[in-house]
Each structure stands twice: as C-alpha cells, then as structure tokens.
Specification:
Elements: H1 13-24, H2 30-43, H3 47-58, E1 71-75, H4 86-96, E2 101-105, H5 115-121, H6 126-131, H7 133-139, E3 142-146, H8 147-150, H9 158-164, H10 169-173, E4 184-188, H11 195-205, E5 207-215, E6 227-235, E7 237-244, H12 263-274, H13 280-295, H14 302-314, H15 317-328
Parallel strand pairs: 1-4, 2-3, 4-5
Antiparallel strand pairs: 5-6, 6-7
Length: 330
Amino acid sequence: MKTLPLAVPHMSEAEAEEVFGWILDGEASEEEIARFLLAMTERSETADEIAGAARALRARLIPVDAPANAIDCCGTGGDGHHTLNVSTAVSLVVAACGIPVAKHGNRAASSKSGAADTLEALGLDMEAAGRTAEKTLAELGICFLFAKNHHPAMGRIQPIRLRIGRRTIFNLMGPLSNPARVKRQLIGIARPAYVPIYAEAMAKLGTDHTMIVSGDEGLDELSLAGGNEVAVVEGNDFDMRRMDAEMAGLPHAPIEAIRGGDAVHNAAALKALLEGTPGPYRDAVLFNAAATLRVAGKTETLGDLAAMAGEAIDSGAAKGLLANWIEMAR
C-alpha cells in the first residue's frame, strides 16, 4: 500500500496525477484516503492539484461516443444549500433546444438528491439509461452518464465520500472528467473565491468554451439571489466576469425560493416545471439555460436565450423529450 503525502503543503500537477492514481487504483487504505481528502479540503486545493487529479480520473474512465458539439451542464455539489435540481432541468431544456447534452452525474454524496436520484424518481431507469447512453444521445440529443458506470475506480471512493459527508476534491474532479470528453461546459462550483483557481485548472486541461460560475452566497450554479462570479475559459486561457439575473431579463429571488428536498420532492418540482409552472425555479433554470446555450455557441443576448429556453418548456418540447428518454431507456 502507498503512503499518501499528508505533510506535503501542495503538489505539482504531475505529483497530483500520480497520487490520485494510487487512490483510484486502491493502493491506499480507506482511512488514509479520508484523512488525505479532508486535509486537502482544509487547506484548499490548487489548480495544479485539481488538474492532475482530473487527469488521473480521465485516464481510467470508460468513454462514450458523442457528437462533436455535445455539451454538459453540472454543478460540483457540496454547497450545503440543498436546492432543487437546476442543472438536471437545464440539461433537458437545452437538449430540447437542439443542443446535444451528455449529462454527467451521480447520486447524492453531500446533498439530499443528486441528478441520478431525481431522474430515477422521474421514472428513468438508471441501468438502462447507462446501457443506451450512446443511442439516446445520438437519437434524442440527451443521455445520462452515471459516474459509477464510467468511472469504475470511483466504486471504492464513494463510500469514503459518504462517510466524510462534505465536499472534497472529488466534487471538483467529476465535472472535468466527462466520459463523452465534451469540449463545452457550464460548471457551477460552491465557492465564488475559488472560481479563478478552478478556471485555471480547466485551462490547464484545455477546452473550447467552458463557463465556471458561482453565486456570491456559495451556490454551485448561477444564482438569482444576487451577483455571480464567472470565469470564461477558452483554450488554455480564461477571463473573469460578473453576471446577475437582470442580464437575462429575470427577477432576483432568494435561495430559499428554490430550496429542495429528497428525490421524490425534487422530481415533483421538476415535473411541474416542465408542465409550465412559473416561479423562481423556472427563472433559475432559464438563467442557467441561457448561459449554457451561450457556451454551446449561441450568440443571441442572454435575454433572448432565456426566452428560447422558456419556449422549449412552454411548447412541451422538454417534457416530451423526457418522456421519450424514459421510453427509450428501457
């Protein structure tokens, strides 16, 4: 068994890739991995460490074929706000706008309901969704890439994450290791001050166009409550920006207005959203969908893109897409 470098203040990208290779390959004990992850969380991970860890996870994933223009929209989780599943709803809405979405996700590790939990409560068979991922992505324009199916090395890590019960570097690694190898992403992280660090990690890995976002209150998506810290990463460089809901023609709302619950609760809210129910949840989805459409290459204003997303809901396209997905993934 390997001894993890708990005393090392920071690791280079190459060192992090090696150490996380040991972790993912089961060459360290569960107790030592837990101590190591908590120590990193306490001192905060560097861009080199995040990029190196992501490279280790990427090297061990089971890939899927995807259209060249496929995108992903996800949050790192671990923000402690327990909101409704915004990025899951955004994925359905954006796919209904004609953009292929390779949604990468998992069950809850530090929240009440992860993307997989909510989609399952809506009727999507997780095992079948994984088995038919390439087919549904090619024919419907959406798939769910369940992390456990594509990152077998994570099977031994998930119990450790559940025992820790708080955000670790694995929250940050997941969005950087999409099995469809997407080059365009909207990624929400839980710490606004950490946006440039995470953006630097993404820039080290390279991307066509990725937007890293964080609400000022520590929300791992674009927030309606106030301002948002945003990094736009293109190629191996990035720049910082500020965004708020008014830029998309949407009203502000407190986080409490989109507070979620367990998978059944969140699934019911998502179903109501797709049926056209107005309110802060819809507005949050439209805001994040507008940004995701921008990442996908749409050049209209954020307001126009939010309207495009709204039409995908009100026309029944997003609801119909989910029904077809559930039917195909059997």
